[in-house]
Design goal:
With 292 residues, the chain is of the alpha/beta class.
Length: 292
């Protein structure tokens, strides 16, 4: 005997099964896409702006961390994925690259062409996380609206197209302070000191109430109340999460527990993963270990 269900009941069953499938998919590993620009500063191995090694290290650290089961990490070299379709289902995209400084260097990959900008904008509209790191925080004022939405702030190297910097750079050893201790990105992160090429006086939208300072460096004496902020986060209205830090000049700073943990926490948070109560735990790996 065949049982026939009323059409309305069939529709409800299909909806229920679809909801379960969607929840199951959302509960799976978070896909994190790391995009590395070409190394531009000095010879290979000098430990400055080492983008390829940084993304390789991040992948190995997350793959062997206490959140290994909830993330799936891939990296792409030379500034953009060969098959950009891989971005279409990413939970978070992190760019570690150069940024354009007036007539010097190249635009960060997400702004290097109108096509790239449109691809990233499409991912943002569906709620994908977005992170910038050190030099990739550089952006021209023409793209201010985009980057203020995607990540919350940027290094502003021009004023009305002229060679006048709003933001600033200094290299020094200074104390780095957690600015919003209750934020998930700062779990397990304490105040510490490191030598860094700090970018500060970052351009933020003063009306952005969703922006949260993550790290401050009081020794920088910025031009405003947020002038000493060197890492920040925001939750976008599209449901996505943005993060940026101006730190990351020296590759050796990955050996710093607090630096490493904060950045890894930020990646997991931006992908809407669960940041452990004590933060993401991952040790530093040498080049030889990464190759293995």
């Amino acid at each position: 005997m065949r049982i026939r269900f009323p059409p309305c009941l069939c529709a409800l069953l299909c909806l229920a099964l679809s909801t379960v499938a969607t929840r199951s998919l959302a509960a799976g590993p978070k896909k994190i896409v790391l995009i590395a620009g070409k190394k531009s500063h000095g010879p290979v191995g000098n430990g400055i702006h080492d983008y390829p090694w940084s993304v390789k290290l991040i992948k190995v650290m997350l793959d062997n961390s206490n959140v290994a089961g909830q993330v799936r990490v891939e990296y792409h070299l030379d500034g953009w994925p060969r098959d950009e379709k891989t971005l279409e289902d990413a939970d978070a995209i992190m760019v570690i690259s150069d940024g354009r400084d007036g007539d010097l260097f190249e635009e960060a990959p997400h702004f290097s062409s109108a096509a790239h900008r449109q691809v990233v904008a499409r991912q943002m509209r569906r709620g994908c996380g977005f992170l910038t790191f050190h030099f990739s925080t550089f952006a021209p004022d023409a793209f201010a609206k985009d980057i203020l939405n995607w990540s919350g702030g940027y290094f502003d190297w021009e004023t009305d197209g002229r060679r006048k910097w709003y933001s600033a750079i200094t290299t020094q050893r200074a104390e780095v302070l957690p600015a919003t201790p209750g934020h998930p990105i700062l779990r397990g992160v304490e105040r510490f000191s490191m030598r860094e090429e700090f970018y500060f006086n970052i351009r933020f939208d003063p009306s952005d109430r969703s922006l949260v300072p993550i790290w401050t460096v009081p020794a920088l004496h910025g031009r405003s109340d947020k002038g000493d902020v060197v890492a920040w986060a925001r939750e976008r209205t599209d449901g996505g999460r943005g993060f940026g830090t101006t730190c990351g000049h020296f590759y050796d700073n990955w050996k710093q527990d607090n630096f490493r943990r904060m950045v890894l926490n930020a990646i997991v948070w931006a992908a809407k993963g669960d940041v452990p109560a004590s933060g993401v735990a991952a040790r530093f790996y040498t080049h030889a270990e990464i190759k293995e």
